[in-house]
Amino acid sequence: MAESKLMTMRDAIARHVPSGSMVLLGAQLEQMIPFAAGHELIRQGRRDLTVVGPISDILFDQMIGAGCVSRVMAAWVGNVSAGVGYCFRRAVEHAVPRKIEVVDYSNFTMALALHAAALGVPFLPTYATLGSDLLKKNGNLREFPSPVSEEKLVAVRALRPDVAILHVQRADAQGNAHIWGSLGVAVDGARAARKIIIVAEEIAEPSVISSDPNRTLVPGFLVEAVVHEPGGAHPSPVQGYYGRDHAFFAQYHEQTRRVEDFEDWLARWVVHASDRGEYLTQVGAERIQSLGVKEHAYTAPADFGY
Amino acid sequence: MGFSEREHGLIVTARSEAEVTSRGYTFSELMVAAAAREIGDGELVFVGMRLPMLAFLVARRTHAPRAVGLFENGVVRETPSLELLYTMGDPPNLLHATQCGQMLDVMSLLQQGRVNVGFLGAAEVDRFGNLNTTWGHRNKEMQRLPGSGGACDIACLARRTVVLLAHERGRLTERVGHITSPGYGSGNGWRRAQGLPANSGPSAVITTLGVVRFGDDGEAFLASVHPGVSVEEVLANTGWTLRVADDLVETPAPRDEALAVMREMDPNHFWTR
C-alpha cells in the first residue's frame, strides 16, 4: 500500500505553500471554504500570495487584512451575507496594511480560466464580459475575432494555481476525495493546479471511497497532502456535517470596520489560536453543536454491482 | 453569487411604516410581486438571493409552476428550500435540489442562450441599464465594492435581465463610472457591436418607486409607478431626465396569494421589511 499523505495543517502549509505562491481557495463558493488552511497561512507569515477563487467569502478579506496577499484574482471579494469586506477596501483604497493588485473576473471567466488550465490549453473562448470594463481592465481577458465565424469572442487565459486547497467531506489517506453538494469550480480547480492539498472532515477507508467512484471528484494521485481537520471550514458550511454560522459572518462585519478592531479579531481568532482545535474551543461546544446536522438526509444507495 | 446576495443594496427598506400599514404590504413585497411577474412559466431563471429568491418562489407557486431555478455554484432547483437562505450555498438550498453540478454546468446553459431571465442587484444603474458593482463613491471618495460575481455573465448572456435596487438619485445615475455588467451601453446597436448575443439585455429595473423599462433605442423609460408614488417623485430621485411612458400605469398591488407565499417563506420580514 502506498505511503500515507496524512499530515498536520502546519506541515502541509509549511511544505507546500511558500510565500509568493498562487493559491486557489474557496472553489466551492460559499460552501467548504478552507478557513483553517487560510488561518495557518496567516500564522506562518506568508507574504506576496496571489489568492484565486470566485468568491471565498470573508477568507480573502482576512488574508488581505493580515498582509499575506499582494494580488487577488476573483469575481467577488467581500462578506456574502453582510456586505463589503473592510480589509479588502482598506487595502485597495488606502494600501493598508499593504497595496494589493486586484484582477477582476466574473464567475464564468474564472471558471473558464481554471477549465482551460485543466484542459491544458492556453485559453478558452466566451461571449461573457464583452462590453464590460472587466474586459478592458483584466489583461487575462482579450477580445479576438473568431477564426470560424463572423463574431467577436473573449479569450480567457488559462490560470494555473501553484496550489489548490480544497475542503472536502471525506478522503482516504491517499487523497482520493469525495465531495458532494456545492461543487462550483472544485473539479476544474483540482485539475488546473500544480499541487493539491485536501482538507477533510473525515478520513475514510479506501474501500469507502472506491464504493462510490462517481463521487470521487479528486483522484489521490494528484494530491500532495491530506489534512484531517474536522470543523476546518467553519464558519462556512459543509453539507452533511455542519451549517453556515451566519452570526459569525455578521459579527466579523461588525468587528472589522476599523483596522485596530480587525487586529483584535485576528489576534483572537487566528494568531493566538495555535491550531484549529483551539479555534473551535473558542467558538464553543454549544455553538458548534447548534450548527450540526439536525436531520440526516442520506442518498439512496446506488448499485455498482454486476 | 450572481447576482446574488453579493450585489450591493438588495435589502430594500420600506419608505415608511404608515404607508405599509395603510396599504397592507411593504414596498419590498410590492417589488417581489413585480419581480415574480417577470418570470414566465417553464422559464430557466438565474435566481440570486433575497428579494429575487422570494420572487422565484412566488412565481413557482402562482403563475409559473414549471419555472426552474439556477445558481452559480452549480445548483439547479425546482422546489423551495425549507429554510430562509442567506447564501446560495446554504445547506437547505442543496437538500432536495434537482441537481448539484459544477459552475460550468449552469454557465453553459447561460451561454447557449437558454436562460430566460436573470436577476441582478447593483450599486448603480444608468440610463442605458449598465450596472456598476465594482466602484462606489461617497463624499467624492472612491469606494471599492465587491465586484461582479456572476452578474457580468448574466448581464451579457441571459435573454432578459431584471435589476432590483432602491430608488435614489445617486444610484440611478446618468452614466455609471464602471461597467461591471453591460446593459445597452450607449444605446441602440451597442450590444451587437460589442459582440453580445442578439436577444439579450436588460428588461426591467424594479425600484422602490416604480418599474423602468427600455425602449428599442436602449434608453430607459418609466413604465409604472408604485401606488402612492408620483411621477415627480420618481423624476426627482433619478439622476437624469427619465422619459415617461405615454401609457404609464400604476404597478399592480401584490395579490393575496403572492403575499401569502412571501410571508410563509419570510415570516419575520427579514428581506421584505
How would you describe this structure in keywords?
A: Glutaconate Coenzyme A-transferase; 2 domains; 9-stranded mixed β-sheet; 3-stranded antiparallel β-sheet; 12 helices; 12 strands; B: 273 residues; alpha/beta; Glutaconate Coenzyme A-transferase; 3-stranded mixed β-sheet; 26% helix; disordered N terminus
Structural class of chain A: alpha/beta
Radius of gyration of chain B: 17 Å
Shape, principal axes of CA atoms of chain A: globular
Outline the low-pLDDT stretches of chain A. none
Helix content of chain B: 25-40%
Task: Describe the structure concisely.
The complex is a heterodimer of chains A (306) and B (273). Chain A has 306 residues and is an alpha/beta fold.
Protein architecture, described:
The complex is a heterodimer of chains A (306) and B (273). By secondary structure, chain A is α/β, with parallel strands linked by helices. Chain A has two domains: 9-105 and 161-291, 3-Layer(aba) Sandwich (Glutaconate Coenzyme A-transferase), CATH 3.40.1080.10; 123-157, no CATH class. Helix content of chain A is 34%, strand content 20%. Chain A contains twelve helices and twelve strands. In chain A, strands 1, 2, 3, 4, 8, 9, 10, 11 and 12 form a nine-stranded mixed β-sheet that branches. In chain A, helix 2 (35-43) packs parallel to helix 3 (57-65) and helix 5 (107-119) packs across helix 7. In chain B, the strands form three sheets. In chain B, strands 4-3-2-1-5-10-12-13-14-15 form a ten-stranded mixed β-sheet, sandwiched between helices. In chain B, strands 7-6-11 form a three-stranded mixed β-sheet, with no helix packed on it. Chain B has a two-stranded antiparallel ribbon with strand order 8-9. Chain B contains nine helices and 15 strands. Residues 1-18 of chain B have low confidence and may be disordered. Chain B is of the alpha/beta class. Helices cover 26% and strands 23% of the residues of chain B. In chain B, 59% of the residues are buried. Chain B has one domain: Glutaconate Coenzyme A-transferase, CATH 3.40.1080. The interface between A and B is large, with 61 and 56 residues.
